[in-house]
Design goal:
Layout lengths: L2 H21 L7 H13 L15 H22 L9 H6 L1 H24 L4 H11 L42 H16 L1 H12 L7 H33 L7 H4 L4 H16 L3 H14 L6 H28 L9 H24 L13 H9 L5 H13 L5 H38 L1
Helix pairs in contact: 1-2, 1-13, 2-13, 2-17, 3-7, 3-12, 3-13, 3-16, 5-6, 5-7, 5-14, 6-8, 6-16, 6-17, 7-12, 7-15, 8-9, 8-16, 9-11, 9-12, 11-12, 14-15, 14-17, 15-17, 16-17
Length: 445
Amino acid sequence: MSINLIYLIAGAAMFLAAVLPIVLDRYAVSAAMVLLVLGMGIGLLPLPEGMRLDPLVIRPQVERITEFTILVALMGVGLAIDRSFAWRQRSAWASWSSTWRLLAVAMPLTIASVALLGWGLGVAPAAALLLGAALSPTDPVLASDVQVEGPRVEVPDEHDDDDGDGEALGEPVDEKDDVRFALTSEAGLNDGLAFPFVTAGILLASAGSAGSWWVGWLAWDLVGKVAIGVVVGVAVGWGLARVAFRSPRRSLRLAEQGEPLLALAALVMTYGVSQLVGGYGFVSVFACGLTLRAAERNHHYHRSMHEVVQRLERLLTLIILLMLGMAMTKGVLNELDWRGVLIALSLVFVLRPLAGWVSLRVRARGDDLPGGLSRHEALATAFFGVRGVGSLYYLAFAAGEHSFAEERWLWSTTAFTILVSVMVHGALATPVMRHLDRHRESVAA
């Protein structure tokens, strides 16, 4: 394959990434499905000599590009959520009820069930725990079809007053859609909250029995680093919001200038600070995005920031999906066996839906209240736990920290799980979400 052909394929793929979200809006086909299949097709072509797609060879590159893609997606998710979170108000905590349930109940149940299933099938305990942790988060990158669309700034009608600086009145759209809100907020937080369990898998493989490390892991990895991550994210977001919206110097009020690159500066700065002080950078970036969104909530600047982040995320996703698809037809699935197939199918069709259903329906919050879900909405929320880029990052990170004997099998199983998730969830997302929208409208009428 010549370099000119590579340019041609890359250009065509970028064009598809730009038009597919619009073209496929009416159909039960997601852009991720098309890009993954396209990558698999490209992988059947002869690649340039020296171009390797072996995840064990290019592991550092996989780790870095997936890490940055997740960071971009988390900032986008934080900016997209319209529902406020006033932590001093009990009603605010209650309106996020579905999020806390998915994080505190569904995610640990998913990790435990996948790990136990893998262990029962003969996978080493450490590798089984790592697989459960890597496959547990709902992915903020590939779950866009079931997430809120972005920050909504309602345009006032002729009876509303507009002071001319871009503010507008209106009720945020996601306040009416608890399914999309639950999946968006879950995806924003569980990528960071899965990290302690990935660390536990690494410790179990390297240090052996949990008796020698579980206390420190519980205090620092599970609690301390999460708390630091939240504090750093809120602090950086608050400081940047003060500068962008309310600085006494007009040259620093980026909101008035409409400079959207603040979002990228915020995510890089937040991640760097959090990692330096020992927090979880993923948690920090999402918290920073939420804090920025909370400042001057109806200002058009939020939409500008979200758009630039979304476009960068789309480009990065294009690269990852094409490379993953190419890798699938170049050998990454070679170590897949019946155990990996069983784990992937069980996770997508049984384990995650069941864990999500239990978390949302036990002592369920009334569906007429913010954060409450009806039976149909709870079932949809439980089912659409999309696996994706986060799983690749966690596996690459763990493999860089410790050598797992089952590493090639882990890559094959993870890649197959993502393939199943992209195809199944991508095909069902549009019809299911439209059905829920129609049902919600008929109830409100």
